[in-house]
Write a structure and sequence with these properties.
The complex is a heterodimer of chains A (118) and B (956).
Chain A (H helix, E strand, L loop, with lengths): L1 H19 L4 H21 L21 H32 L9 H10 L1
Chain B lengths: L2 H11 L1 H6 L4 H20 L2 H5 L4 E8 L4 E7 L1 H24 L6 H20 L3 H19 L6 H32 L4 H4 L3 H6 L3 H15 L8 H4 L5 H10 L2 H10 L1 H4 L3 H23 L4 H21 L3 H32 L10 H4 L1 H15 L5 H14 L9 H24 L17 H19 L5 H12 L18 H18 L1 H10 L5 H23 L4 H22 L14 H19 L4 H21 L3 H22 L12 H26 L9 H12 L4 H9 L1 H27 L1 H7 L14 H24 L7 H19 L1 H6 L5 H18 L12 E4 L7 E4 H31 L20 H6 L1
Antiparallel strand pairs in B: 1-2, 3-4
Helix pairs in contact in B: 1-3, 1-6, 3-5, 3-6, 5-6, 5-13, 5-18, 5-23, 5-24, 6-7, 7-8, 8-11, 11-14, 13-18, 14-17, 16-17, 16-22, 17-18, 17-22, 18-20, 18-21, 18-23, 18-24, 20-22, 20-23, 21-22, 21-23, 21-25, 22-25, 28-32, 29-30, 30-31, 31-38, 31-41, 33-34, 34-35, 35-40, 35-41, 36-41, 37-38, ...
Classes of the chains: A mainly alpha (118), B mainly alpha (956).
Protein name (chain B): Na/H antiporter subunit A
Membrane topology (chain B): Multi-pass membrane protein
Pfam families (chain B): MbhD, MbhE, MnhB, Proton_antipo_M, Proton_antipo_N
Chain lengths: 118, 956
């Protein structure tokens, strides 16, 4: 089970990294989202994996999953929504303003060429 | 008056001039004057205690763990400087009111002035050296604003920048010195440090601390080799020069040397560094001053020279030297401020400050002539004026000072300095006021109104009174000297008098005055020699250094930072993996302590779906809509994983966030292209793939490693499990952690969320206010719109379901304390319910029914959460302490009432507001491009079925 979770974290990270290195805003945003999943699961897993013992206090139950990483990850999920929304807005604003959704600065000469041809 | 008020008054008062700006210039100056007067009177109320030799204290612990306390003290020295700052401040405000022209923004000027004044008072009253540093930096900043007050003048901006750079660097050095000092003494309180002379001077770090602190003092007080910024700061309006650069700020360094005198002075290092720097500064400043043609530049270099004189006196480390220094501070402040104000008057009336264009003003401006001449003669050291007395004391002290084993070095240089000092004073009087009346002044000079000459006149009265009757100042100066010396030395017994008999100092004085007169006679030939001499130009050197540092920074940064985000991301990822690998390969690795749990078929199934969806996203990311669906699957699998591993709260949160994120991305995709074109080369894709694989392997290894081992130290989670019910009153430990144990974190987080939403709102506003709006209105959708914008099935369904959603949200909210749920999740559920209304019935319909703006909802949430926290103050508990009780209202069962629920309500509202404000902002963009939106939800757009557009039909 630990292997499954660890490999899922690794695969999410790899996919996220690859997409983050793309050249257009949309795949980069999706890549960051994948990285967010990876980080959240990673943090969650720091409480070690426990099956069938949610941290809801019940009479007669002694073993519970670690509640602390869960609380931290819970707020992280909500905040990451806010941050994704901000990044999307910035990307969208840039695209609407310049009709260009490249992530990297475009070389100056290309711009001049584009203006010359259009 | 409490010391707190004296320091706080100028700062709070600084708010007023800006507000009074529209009420007129007199009102603006009046309110500034009143504020300063109040602080001045407040200071005077402490005079009896100071005269009685007491030290007035005021203290509030600010950050006691850091040793940073807001503690103030007022002794003789502090009182003396505060008196100078506030007293001369009053005169400067009166003078500035008449000096500034109608084009100058007076409110701004006086705001800066009061900020500066408060910072200065803060320095001289601080009892904590960290607090002192805070005020020290504040003076650098506020003086930057004041020097650059005439923003349109390039000299003003350059002078301000230079002053900030030099004094800022000095301040930085001083922070280091003060921290070392505090470490040695074991306390950052001055009153403790001053008691530990032996301990500090015996410490091996004493020299380092001394040099760092002196760097701060020398830069601030314009000592060689940092003297060059002061003349350039003269680009400031004259009231600023008179205030900052003669009476107050440049004396801050000297103040600090005097304050630290008991612990730092008396060692060979102190003596050599301080005396030498002071001596060089004194002579150099005086020589340069003689050959300056700009009145203010002359005065600036003379200030540099006199600051050097005071520094030298402090450097000697004797009690008599310290007393002479204190006396000269008082005298210099009076005559130099008067001279600066006179220079301002001449500039104001004759429209030039160039000495070569002036002359003969004695007849045209008799009042100014008398004021300036008396002040200048005092500076030259003529008897019956106060400058003579302290200069005499300086020469006396110089006579006893042996530097570099040479008994004559200091006396000779001191005499040379005095000689040039006398010479430039005579030149100032001779070349400006005497000589024939000219007919080519830029403006017709005449004496100004009383508002301009009265403030310097008051100072000149002091110059004469102290000069004639030095015994009046003697007790006060001795009091100040006593507080400088502390326990380190006794106050000297000698009296202040004009006639000391035929002592060597008198002969030196005579040599200086006579020599000064001779210098004036041979001024023309010596000026030719001076002009022919090669001299280093400080400004050029300074600019060259700044430029080369900037070039170095550019050379390092630009290749790394070339505007390509993907490059930074790749560099960051590789660096992190490399650093992690280094730690991994050099550290010791413990054996696994946990058994691997067996994988169930369900888990393997979920894992397969997650892996497949991630792989699909990477493979097919060019189809953006498809990748959006795939990321939904990833999120779903993560949520299910949370359920599987005993985290129901997380699963609910992840699931609901997933829904709103997808909606958000869909809204964005509405505008963005649907496909990502192929741009990167194969090589680049190979590079990115390998970065991704390395990163993935690293996180896999790391998480696999720690999941098979127990934590090295016992986690604090046990505490939360044990106290959740006892202390927090809830059985859902995750929720109790959020709203109770770590409520402060959660409070911060909902604020961040709110700010993020407001940021999105602001960006949308900016976009819609700019050219993008037209762009959006003209935009042709790249895909066919649905003919029926609001399908009836969906409209009916969402409206029917809305009350149910609200009920579910309410239920989830209420049960959150004991069962999975709570404010975050309830907020997200309700948001989804509302978003569905927008989607089904349209923006216009939904927002017409919106009773409260979302900003208000965010604000209310943060406010409720904050007030809940503050509520615990009223029962004497720290912020956000929660309480709960159980009540029973028949016929219901017993239930719990907790303040945490109120806090959770704040969380709920903030989440609803933030999510809705973000999504609403996006849909407002969409609305602009989609044409007017109907108020009526169920109307059908017939244009799609209109057969008039055959071209489009074919395209489908």
């Amino acid at each position: 089970m630990e292997f499954l979770v660890a490999s899922a974290i690794g695969i999410l990270t790899a996919g996220g990294l690859y997409l983050t290195l793309r050249l257009r805003t949309f795949p980069v945003i999706l890549g960051i989202s994948l990285l967010t999943y990876a980080v959240n699961v990673f943090l969650f897993a720091s409480g070690r994996l426990t099956v069938g013992a949610p941290p809801i206090l019940t009479k007669g139950v002694e073993v519970y999953a670690d509640p602390l990483p869960q609380a931290l990850v819970l707020t992280a999920i909500v905040i990451s929504f806010g941050m994704t929304a901000v990044v999307v807005m910035i990307g969208l604003g840039a695209f609407l303003g310049s009709d260009d959704d490249h992530v990297d600065d475009q070389p100056e000469s290309d711009d001049a060429e584009a203006e010359g041809t259009s | 008056m409490s010391l707190f008020y004296i320091v706080a008054l100028p700062f709070f008062g600084a708010l007023l001039p800006g507000l009074m700006n529209s009420a007129g210039r007199a009102a603006t100056a009046g309110v500034t004057f009143t504020v300063t007067l109040a602080a001045f009177v407040g200071l005077l109320t402490n005079l009896p205690s100071v005269l009685a030799g007491e030290v007035v204290m005021a203290r509030v612990d600010w950050m006691p763990l850091l040793g940073l306390n807001f503690s103030l003290m007022l002794d003789g020295l502090g009182f003396f400087f505060a008196l100078l700052i506030l007293g001369i401040g009053l005169l400067i405000i009166a003078y500035g009111r008449n000096y500034l022209s109608r084009d100058d923004n007076m409110g701004q000027f006086f705001t800066y002035l009061l900020l500066f004044q408060g910072a200065m008072v803060g320095i001289v009253l601080s009892d904590n050296i960290l607090l002192l540093l805070v005020f020290w930096e504040l003076t650098s900043l506020s003086s930057f604003l004041l020097i650059g007050y005439w923003k349109h003048l390039p000299e003003g901006r350059q002078g301000a920048r230079m002053a900030l750079t030099v004094t800022g660097m000095g301040g930085l050095a001083m922070i280091g010195g003060m921290l070392i000092l505090g470490q040695i003494a074991g306390s950052y309180d001055l009153s403790v440090i001053l008691q530990n002379r032996e301990l500090i001077q015996a410490d091996p770090l004493y020299v380092a601390a001394l040099i760092l602190i002196l760097l701060g003092c020398f830069t601030k007080s314009a000592q060689f080799p940092f003297h060059f910024w002061l003349p350039h700061a003269m680009a400031a309006p004259t009231p600023v020069s008179a205030y900052l650069h003669s009476a107050t700020m440049v004396k801050a360094g000297i103040f600090l040397m005097a304050r630290m005198w008991p612990v730092l002075s008396g060692t060979p290092e102190w003596f050599v560094i301080v005396t030498t720097a002071g001596l060089i500064t004194m002579v150099l400043g005086a020589v340069i001053a003689l050959f300056k043609h700009d009145l203010k530049a002359l005065l600036a270099f003379s200030t540099v020279s006199h600051l050097g004189l005071i520094t030298m006196l402090l450097g000697t480390g004797t009690a008599f030297g310290a007393m002479a220094a204190m006396f000269h501070i008082l005298n210099h402040a009076t005559f130099k401020a008067a001279l600066f104000m006179s220079a301002g008057i001449i500039d104001h009336e004759a429209h030039t400050r160039d000495i070569r264009r002036l002359g003969g003003l004695r007849k045209l401006m008799p009042i100014t002539f008398i004021i300036a001449s008396l002040a200048a003669l005092s500076m030259a050291g003529i008897p019956l004026l106060n400058g003579f007395l302290s200069k005499e004391m300086m020469l006396e002290e110089a006579n006893h000072t042996v530097l570099f084993n040479s008994p004559w070095l200091v006396p000779v240089l001191a005499t040379v300095g005095s000689l040039f000092s006398a010479a430039y004073c005579f030149r100032l009087i001779g070349h400006v006021f005497f000589g024939p009346v000219r007919d080519d002044y830029p403006a017709k000079p005449h004496d100004p109104a009383a508002g301009l000459w009265l403030p310097p006149a008051i100072l000149v009265v002091l110059v004469v009174v102290i000069g004639v009757a030095p015994f009046l100042a003697e007790p006060f100066i001795k009091l100040v000297t006593a507080s400088v010396l502390g326990d380190a030395a006794e106050v000297p017994k000698s009296y202040f008098k004009i006639w000391h008999g035929l002592v060597p100092a008198l002969y030196m004085s005579i040599v200086a005055v006579v020599g000064g007169l001779i210098m004036l006679l041979i001024f023309k030939p010596s000026l030719r020699i001076w002009d022919a001499m090669p001299r280093p130009e400080a400004k050029v050197i300074f600019e060259a250094i700044v430029e080369s540092v900037a070039k170095l920074a550019r050379a390092i940064i630009l290749p790394l930072h070339n505007g390509a985000f993907s490059r930074y991301a790749a560099i960051a990822a590789i660096t992190m993996v490399a650093v992690g690998y280094h730690a991994w390969s050099t550290g010791t690795i413990a054996a696994p302590t946990r058994e691997m749990q067996p994988a169930t078929p369900v888990a393997v199934g979920g894992w397969l779906m997650l892996v497949a969806a991630t792989a699909g996203m990477v493979m097919m990311h060019r189809n953006r809509l498809l990748s959006l669906i795939l990321i939904g699957i990833v999120g779903l699998m993560v949520s299910i994983g949370f359920v599987f591993f005993s985290a129901p709260d997380l699963a609910m949160t992840q699931f609901t966030v997933e829904v709103v994120t997808i909606i958000l991305l869909l809204l964005a995709l509405n505008f963005l292209p649907n496909r990502t074109p192929v741009e990167s080369t194969v090589l680049r894709r190979v590079r990115d793939t390998s970065v991704a694989i390395f990163g993935g392997l690293a996180t896999f290894a790391l998480s696999y490693h720690y999941m098979l081992r127990d934590a090295v130290t016992a986690p604090i989670s046990e505490f939360h499990l044990a106290n959740s019910y006892k202390g927090g009153g809830g059985t859902n430990v995750v929720n109790v952690i959020l709203v109770d144990f770590r409520g402060f974190d959660t409070y911060g987080e909902i604020i961040v969320l709110g700010i993020a939403a407001l940021l999105i709102y602001a960006l949308t506003e900016t976009l819609l206010g700019g050219p993008v709006r037209a762009h959006l209105l003209n935009r042709k959708p790249d895909q066919k719109r649905a003919g029926n914008k609001h399908p009836m099935m969906m409209v009916v369904l969402t409206r029917v379901i809305m009350p149910v959603v609200l009920l579910v949200g309410f239920y989830i909210f209420l049960r959150g304390h004991n069962e999975p749920g709570g404010g975050f999740i309830a907020g997200l559920i309700v948001s989804i319910g509302v978003v569905m209304q927008y989607m089904a019935s349209g923006f216009g319909w939904a927002s017409a029914r919106l009773r409260y703006p979302y900003h208000g909802v965010i604000g209310a949430g943060v406010l409720i959460a904050g007030l809940t926290g503050i509520g615990s103050w009223f029962v004497g508990k720290p912020f956000l302490t929660s309480d709960f009780t159980y009540v029973r209202i028949p016929p219901f069962e017993e239930f719990e009432l907790a303040t945490a629920a109120l806090f959770d309500l704040g969380v709920f509202l903030a989440v609803v507001g933030a999510v809705m404000l973000s999504l609403e902002s996006f849909s407002r963009l969409a609305r602009q491009s989609g044409g007017p939106d109907s108020e009526h939800a169920l109307d059908i757009d017939p244009s799609r079925d209109d057969p008039k557009e055959p071209a489009e039909k074919e395209a489908v």
